[in-house]
Design a protein that fits this description.
This is Transport permease protein. Its main location: membrane. Keywords: Cell membrane, Membrane, Transmembrane, Transmembrane helix, Transport. The chain is globular. The protein is mainly alpha-helical. Strands 1-2 form a two-stranded antiparallel sheet. Helix content is 74%, strand content 2%. Helix 2 packs antiparallel against helix 3, helix 2 packs across helix 5 and helix 3 runs antiparallel to helix 5.
Length: 261
């Protein structure tokens, strides 16, 4: 993992790795930034036509106002996860992961570099969708700081989870299983398109053990001032999950698990 340093940070190496991760997704910005904006627009259109016609309200909000933050956060979650997972698994499959492991970068610096890329991509997606919500729906965050905090936590949590998945997976098929059977169901079954208050008691309770629920609910509070759960609790759960996932990613990087030839 490179030379050990005590009380020092390899700023140049960290900057280079972070710049590489940002340049990687910006080189195909049509797929990584523009495509999520189009997907969000399609979701809004389809669900508005199917469920949001007339004076339909959810939690006292017009359906579009309720739906917008959920769509934004779902896009943030999926793109943060995709950025780190695709970068790691691609490096392993192509055999150039050694270019990341050989420089004098500590596990924490490697983790931070990957997370900066995930946060940058998720942030661009959030800004583009948020701008669309402001222009088309006139929807601005009522509590901007809360909205930014939950977007940042979502990017860090899912970026860390994507890195863990990319390290554990040994081929693209295994990465697809993690995406399709873990990340996507958790994203869709988290109150993105509905209020969990409408669920039967059993599913209502189950929803509260889904960390993505707290991310989406917290962002909805940031945009609308309305939430299913206490936003302070959501912030604590989200921060705790992000810290745990990042700690696991750091441990895997430190051990070299499935990274070293």
């Amino acid at each position: 993992m490179g030379a050990r340093r005590f009380g020092r940070v390899n700023w140049l190496g960290l900057y280079t790795l972070a710049l590489r991760e940002i340049a990687r997704f910006m080189s195909v910005w049509q797929q990584t930034v523009f495509a999520p904006l189009m997907t969000a627009g399609l979701f809004v259109t389809v669900f508005t036509v199917a469920l949001g016609r007339g004076d339909r309200e959810v939690m006292g909000l017009p359906y579009l106002a309720f739906l917008g933050p959920g769509i934004l956060m779902m896009s943030v979650i999926q793109n943060a996860f995709a950025n780190t997972s695709s970068s790691m698994i691609s490096s392993k499959m192509q055999g150039n992961i050694i270019d990341t492991l050989m420089p004098p970068l500590s596990p924490g610096e490697i983790l931070t570099g990957y997370l900066i890329g995930a946060v940058a991509r998720a942030g661009l997606v959030a800004v583009s969708i948020g701008a669309g919500m402001a222009l088309l729906l006139g929807q601005l965050p009522q509590n901007p700081l809360w909205a930014v905090l939950f977007v940042l936590l979502a990017a860090v949590l899912m970026g860390g989870l994507g890195l863990v998945g990319g390290i554990i997976a040994q081929k693209f098929d295994q990465m697809a299983v993690i995406t399709n059977f873990i990340v996507t169901p958790l994203s869709f079954l988290s109150g993105t398109f509905y209020s969990i208050q409408a669920l039967p008691p059993v599913f209502y309770a189950i929803s509260h053990i889904n960390p993505i629920f707290y991310l989406i609910d917290g962002a909805r509070f940031g945009f609308t001032g309305v939430s299913d759960a206490d936003p302070v609790l959501g912030l604590a759960v989200s921060a705790g999950c992000a810290a745990a996932v990042c700690a696991l990613a750091w441990a895997l990087l430190r051990s070299g698990y499935r990274l070293k030839p």
